[in-house]
Structures are given as structure tokens and as C-alpha cells.
Write a structure and sequence with these properties.
Length: 350
């Protein structure tokens, strides 16, 4: 693994994983810290090895840290970085962080909710359209000399109903795009008020109703104790014959074993999945076997624009944490759903 040399004895900021050169440069010029970017480091084990390989350097030198979802922030890890003051995940989701352990250790933490919404909403529609227009099969057919278009009869979106599970930042953008296609939009989100639904042109429905009445459905909730496995067999049984279900939120929200059973039983629907229980998908994953499933490798935020924006958002948030100033995504978050789920058991919602 390549490492950068530590050049001074200033307090240390380590930036793991993919991160823009502009974000690193901004941190170097604004922080007063030594800033080292370790692009190949994703996990805690890789971080330990890489920092161990840096000259004059130990995990205990780290005051600020940036990572992504594979960097699991646990009580055990925090014990190894006794001088860590601030951690930022350069992602929207934060279910890989033990919030209680961070609070106990007084490590300030933040996520980056502002940079990924447009890209994730666009990927949602890329998957809906890939299913509706049978793009997997169409592309394969276009490469043959037969051009047999009979099996490629798809669906149009205009005039149909789109259902949104979780009407937050991404869900609201998805709603606007659905309206652009000429669709009626229904949504389920118990933590948003009626004005919010009206503002985004959505009709409020229950979860079962959402699956029963929608032609296309997309999932945009965070992963919590409430949403884990929330979409399951009963919802697949409610699907219309030609429905399309897309998940760009978190794999665990949709019960994969129920979906596999539904597909094996030749149940209705076409499915677009960007997120999974295990990532990368295991080679023997049953999901790989079904032609009516379109798969992408968790690329909701994988665009040039989102990458640049989130790197800068994470850099600024880390500085905010270290200087005790406002950040775009403080954790625990102030949102109603988080408070409600936390109160269920009194600690972390995950
Ligand atoms: P957000 O916090 O703005 O919106 C989440 C919405 O879900 C909120 O309106 C909240 O009220 C609602 N919600 C919470 N619990 C619910 C429940 N039990 N039932 C129904 N609704 C509930 O978050 P966002 O920016 O829209 O992102 C949503 C999720 O998308 C993130 O948590 C992240 O996991 C995922 N994400 C994935 C990618 C990707 O690469 N595929 C990229 C960005 C975000």
C-alpha cells in the first residue's frame, strides 16, 4: 500500500478513501494540521497498517479523520485513536458509525447530506428507466443481427403512479422528476408534515397502499431499526403485474431473502438495485441469476460532481468540528425520525 511521508510534527488529519485533490488542498491550506490523504485506505485494518507504515507516526497522532462507509467507527477503533477530536463520513448514510461510542469519547462527528441528492435521484430514474425500457435485454439484442424486438416491449411512465418511501432530500427530488415524466406521485414518510407533502406535490399514503397502487416505487429512507427489513414479502405480494421497484437507499431496507423467494416463485415486477446486504455482492448471490433484476454497484453518488462536492463538504465539516463551528450535517442529526427511533431504545437507532 502506498503511503505519503509525514513531514512535520503538527497534529495530523488523515483522509481515507476517494477524495478530491481540491478537498485535500483546502484542508492543507485552512487547517494548520498536517494533512495526509491515503486513497487506498477504506477500512480500519487498512488504516492501521498504512499509518503504521508512515515514518514518525502513530494512530495516536490523529486529531481529524475523514472516511466513507467501509471505515466502521466502533468503540474498539476509538480506543486506538485517543486524540481523535473529529470524524467526518463523506457520505449521507451514517449507519456505519457507533454514535453512542463517539458521544462517550467526546469525538465530534458529522456526515455530508448536501452533496449526493441530485446524483442519487438521477440514478434512481436511470434504474427505473432501465427496467421500464428493458435496457439490459435491448442492449444485448442490438448487438445481434436478429433485432428481435418482440420481447422488448416495455412500459412508458407518462400517466402512471410513482410511490416514494422516505420523502427526504433524495425522495423530494425523485418526486419532482416523476412529475416531469407526467406521473402522479404518492409517498410514505411519517416524519414529514402535510405541508411538506403538498410542497412536493405528493399524496400521503400508507406503506402497503404505496406498493398496492404504484406502478413504480423507489426507496429513500435511512437505515434504522424501523426501516431495517421494512420492505418484505407482503409488499412484493401487493405488486401490480408490471411494477418496477428501485432501491438506492441501503440494502438492508429491502429484505433480500424475501425478494429472492419472490423471484424464484415467478412473482411480478422488475427490480433495480444499487445497494445490497453484502457489498460487493457475493459471487454466489442469487440476485445475479434473474434477468428481471438490474444491478449497479452502489453508484448513487458516483459522479464527478458529487465526488467534488462531497470532498469539499467533508473538508469544511471537519474544520467546523475541530473549531467548534457549525457543520452541514451534525451527528446525531436533528431530524424527527432520528429522535423518534432513538427514543425507542434510548441509544443509537441502528
Ligand atoms: P434524508 O434524511 O433527507 O431523507 C430520509 C427521509 O426518510 C426523511 O424524510 C425521513 O423522515 C424518512 N424516514 C425516516 N424513517 C422513516 C420510516 N421509518 N418510514 C418512512 N420514512 C422514513 O436522507 P436523503 O439524503 O434523502 O438520503 C436517504 C438515504 O439514501 C440515505 O440515508 C442513504 O442511506 C441513501 N443514499 C444512498 C446513496 C447511494 O449511493 N445509493 C447515495 C446517497 C444516499
Amino acid at each position: 500500500m502506498k503511503t505519503e511521508k509525514r513531514t512535520s510534527l503538527k497534529p495530523l488529519i488523515i483522509v481515507c478513501d476517494r477524495f478530491s485533490a481540491e478537498g485535500t488542498a483546502w484542508l492543507k491550506s485552512h487547517s494548520g494540521h498536517e494533512v495526509i490523504h491515503l486513497p487506498e485506505v477504506q477500512t480500519v485494518a487498512e488504516l492501521e497498517t498504512a499509518v503504521g507504515n508512515l515514518p514518525n507516526n502513530q494512530l495516536s497522532d490523529i486529531e481529524g479523520l475523514i472516511g466513507r462507509t467501509k471505515l466502521k467507527i466502533t468503540k474498539d477503533f476509538l480506543a486506538k485513536v485517543p486524540n481523535l477530536k473529529g470524524f467526518v463520513t463523506a457520505t449521507v448514510g451514517f449507519d456505519h458509525i457507533d454514535l453512542q461510542a463517539c458521544a462517550d469519547r467526546k469525538v465530534a462527528i458529522a456526515h455530508c447530506p448536501d452533496s449526493h441528492s441530485a446524483s442519487a435521484a438521477e440514478l434512481t430514474w436511470a434504474l427505473v428507466l432501465a427496467c421500464a425500457k428493458k435496457l439490459r435485454a435491448a442492449e444485448a439484442t442490438a448487438r445481434t443481427q436478429t433485432w428481435n424486438r418482440e420481447p422488448l416491449l416495455g412500459w412508458q411512465l407518462d400517466g402512471k403512479t410513482h410511490g416514494i418511501f422516505g420523502l427526504g432530500r433524495i425522495g423530494a427530488r425523485v418526486a419532482r422528476m416523476a412529475q416531469g415524466f407526467g406521473m402522479r406521485v404518492v409517498a410514505h414518510d411519517p416524519y414529514r408534515n402535510n405541508q411538506w407533502f403538498e410542497k412536493h406535490g405528493c399524496e400521503r399514503v400508507g406503506v402497503d397502499e404505496l406498493f398496492h397502487m404504484s406502478d413504480t416505487v423507489s426507496l429513500h429512507v435511512p437505515m434504522t431499526r424501523e426501516t431495517k427489513g421494512r420492505i418484505h414479502r407482503i409488499h412484493f405480494d401487493l405488486l401490480k403485474p408490471d411494477s418496477i421497484i428501485v432501491n438506492t437507499s441501503r440494502g438492508g431496507v429491502l429484505k433480500e431473502e424475501d425478494l429472492v423467494l419472490h423471484l424464484k416463485n415467478k412473482g411480478p415486477g422488475t427490480f433495480g438495485l444499487d445497494v445490497f446486504n453484502y457489498e460487493p455482492l457475493k459471487v454466489d448471490s442469487e440476485l445475479l441469476k434473474f434477468p428481471q433484476v438490474v444491478l449497479t454497484p452502489h453508484i448513487g453518488a458516483t459522479t464527478h460532481e458529487a465526488f467534488k462536492a462531497v470532498s469539499m463538504e467533508a473538508a469544511k465539516n471537519l474544520m467546523g468540528l475541530l473549531r467548534n463551528q457549525a457543520v452541514s450535517g451534525p451527528l446525531p442529526p436533528p431530524e424527527e425520525w432520528f429522535k423518534a427511533v432513538s427514543e425507542l431504545a434510548g441509544t443509537s437507532p441502528f
